[in-house]
Write a structure and sequence with these properties.
The complex is a heterotrimer of chains A (632), B (133) and C (212). By secondary structure, chain A is mostly helical. Chain A has helices at residues 7-19, 25-30, 35-63, 74-110, 118-141, 165-193, 206-238, 251-285, 292-305, 321-333, 335-351, 358-381, 383-389, 393-423, 429-455, 472-502, 543-555, 588-604, 608-625; strands at residues 565-569, 576-581. Chain A has a two-stranded antiparallel sheet with strand order 1-2. In chain A, strand 1 and strand 2 form a beta hairpin. In chain A, helix 14 (393-423) runs antiparallel to helix 15 and helix 18 runs antiparallel to helix 19. By secondary structure, chain B is mainly α. Chain C is built from six helices and two strands, in the order ββαααααα. Chain C has a two-stranded antiparallel ribbon with strand order 1-2. The longest helix of chain C has 34 residues, at 143-176. Chain C starts with a strand and ends with a helix. The chains are: A mainly alpha (632), B mainly alpha (133), C mainly alpha (212). Chains A and C meet through helix 6, helix 7, helix 8, strand 1 and strand 2 of A and helix 2, helix 5 and helix 6 of C.
Chain lengths: 632, 133, 212
Amino acid sequence: MATVVSPRARRYVEELDRLWEERPGVLGWLTTTDHKRIGILYFFTTLVFFGAGGVEALLIRSQLIGPNGHVLGPQAYDEVFTMHGITMIFLFVIPMTTGAFGNYLIPLMIGARDMAFPRLNALSYWIFLGSGVFMYVSLLQGHAPNAGWFDYVPLASKQFDPGNNIDYYGYGLIFNGISSTIASINFIVTIFKLRAPGMSINRMPLFCFAFLAVAFALLFALPSLSVAALFLELDRQLGFHFYDAAFGGAPLLWQNLFWIFGHPEVYIIILPAFGIATSIIPAFVHRRMVFFPLVALAEILVAFLGFGVWVHHMFTVGFSTLTTVYFAAASLIIVIPSAIQLFAWITTIVTGTPDFQTPLLFIIGFIVYFIIGGLSGITVAAIPFDQQVHDSYYIIAHFHFVIFGAAVFPILGGMYFWFPKVTGRVYHELTGKVSFWLTFAGTFITFFPMHIVGILGMPRRNYTYPAHMGWTLLNFIESIGSYLLAAGLILIVVNLAYSFFRGPQKEPPFEGDTLEWATSSPPPPYNFAVIPTVRSPYPMWDKEDRERDNKRLEAGEGLLNLGHETPATTAEDARLDEILTMPSHSPWPPLTALALTGMFVMLVMAHYWIAAGFLALVGLTVLGWHQNEEQA
Amino acid sequence: MTRPPSSALVWFGVLGGAAAWATQFVAGLGFTFAQCNAPPGRWQLPVQTWQSALAIAGVVVGLAASVVCVVLYRRTRALDHLAATERLGKGSPPPAGRINFLATTGLLVNLLALAIMIMTAVGAPFLNLCQQS
Amino acid sequence: MTDASAGEVPRSAHAERSRTAAAIDRGRQAQPSGWWGMVLFLCSEVTLFGTLIGSYFYLNFGAHQWPPPPIKPPEIAGPTVATAVLVGTVPLMALGAAAARRGLRWSAVAWIAAAFVIQILYLAAQVLLIRHDLRTFTPQGNAYGSIYFTLLFAHHAHVLLGLLLNAVVLYKVARHGLTNYWLIGARGLALYWYVVAALAVAVLFTILSPSL
């Protein structure tokens, strides 16, 4: 609900409006450091990549709609399914959840005015954009990565993949990883330092716990991928022998390094969904989350334990039992935190008074898919079963249930939930419900039959299949399902786009329990006129505290209006420590990102000295960045 | 609270079991990779002995951390029905509320870490060295 | 901000002079954002080196002999002395950061500059040692060479980055003064070198493991 502003308070608000005014026009967007604008940039960019990944998916399903398909030849098919995986994971899900939702909402939820490092925030966006364009240039050139998103050697080695397809992959992932590493540092410092006074750890919203877990997981998982990609490129470009068995290298080293990143990555994908679910559920069932401390812990624990299970992606490579027992134990125990969360969500819904509006429908869809996907996950944790279904469509079914059904549904629900807050307009509820049912049905029809066709022996990553295998009807059904799913997703986009331009401009029809709902819709650039009083994880349900904030605004207290200011507090108990001055517009983040893009382009073209020149340029832009001594 | 416990003690309670598991995991894996990846005859490492030893050490640390959590939980629970408000999801004031919250979470972390450590090592003396699963 | 419930809390960005910056640093109850940023960046770098070192041992374990003949196990003396010299700059950096925290601008510059000179000499010596190694085996020869030189290159790239950071911090503190920003910068720089020195020791033990 908007902060109601009396005439006396209005002059304080106008002063803040003046101090925090965003530069207009394209230049304003290019040089912005405001977390909300950066979130919106991430949102639209990731939606474009989602569309690209979706087109790739539809091409795959159209190729497989019948046996001996002719939509894509084998080389093109390899590039399409590889780019589908890379796009959906690195260019859609991660940047959408961390970059769009995380950037926009975290400072608002903790009662801050921006992220801890606003310019670094902008940099992470521009680097992400550069890395995405870099990867897609490969597709336009006809040299897209073509060895699967996990890119196993020796198939990905220079001997068997001599073009520069894999180099776009190797360099591209290192490039993209820089963006995510910077973003995760920013999230952690923001959550540690910028929480409103009084928001001790036990009073932090569950959404923030989820994103803290995601940020730590990204920070510790990405180096493994970067090292794996570095070794790959050294082997390919400079003739090193990390993965080359003939010269003492180990092909399995790639698999180990990749999955040491890859398994935490799947928790990185799902955890923001947990965070969004824990925001939407209390809002629509009008009840606090049961077992709050255990749910908060479960979110962190899933990320932590996720580092100890990677070999379960490698049960067919021939490890000894003495080795696999480590991973089997951790893989079984990691079910427990997920189960705690499921139990908490379901109990909260059942014991509350649910109002089944579109956002809650998507969360219920998420719970359904998470349960089914989780069950198929338990089956593949059993080594003998996994050894039968490895590399079959059963695995594709499992991970699409958890990645699409369980990670993307909350994103779609979150888009509906926060749409009124971000835009100040209301979407069309009936269309929203229809879009949910189309998407839910489409997801089920597309991915459920894959369990069956996988057990019937259909291998993954094959560009076609012969008739008379017993797979034809199921593939046909899956492809029809995918068109239905596409229709549902398009309806969501159409609904929100139409509502953005023509939807009624009024207060949101529902309200969450966290602080972003204390601001106007959309929030002003400074978020909060007065730094909020916080005494629980559900600040919007503490009406006396919100009243107190209004009174403080009247009295001109806690305005922090001597500049672009926000308070810094202690990490555990959020005691007020100092007032920080935040930077505003800066050209250096996009310039640094541009120089870095130049470096990677030169690397993929094997112009190493010019690449070194671009690296020096990056150094110069960073020096320029430090001309103005902002807050540290 | 008259004298809040030290931050180090609280964080040992929360993270001790997890750190013990991480140590057992990295060291134990190191031993099995060293023995089972190496060509036959390169060396003979006492893998199973180390697996058992690491598990025992880890369990001791995990139990110690659990005891710390129980003690901190009981100390903070006695103040102003803190545990009740925490269960209701209403955050109680720091530092007692924060410590109670961390002690609750720490207890679960330690229990799960103990379970993983024991499950990992319980079969170690009976498994054939380096037999493929 | 004068809030009756919070008391006087400093506006740290306004601290342009050493004494004010030092007073704010003393009065903080928690570490500043820039310090946390450096700590988290270093967590990422430590993980990077953990992965590189893990890869070294993974390749080691799979080999019949390590290093594979005819490469001889590395000599101990030269690398150990060089690493000891680098570790010896850690107290100098610590003194530099402590001086900065006390608002002693020129003292901080002196300590950091002293460390800087020794670190440059260290890097130069290491480049010579590595060139000597390259005469006997190369990264393109086998996996041992690949991981050996990659590990060393990664470490020294971090040393080079540290030298660039030294230069920037020295210039800024000498030219513009010990503001709040550069006080925190000096603290972050010292943290960076502590970790690089610790990683140097880890890399040393890894590289020398066949000879130990």
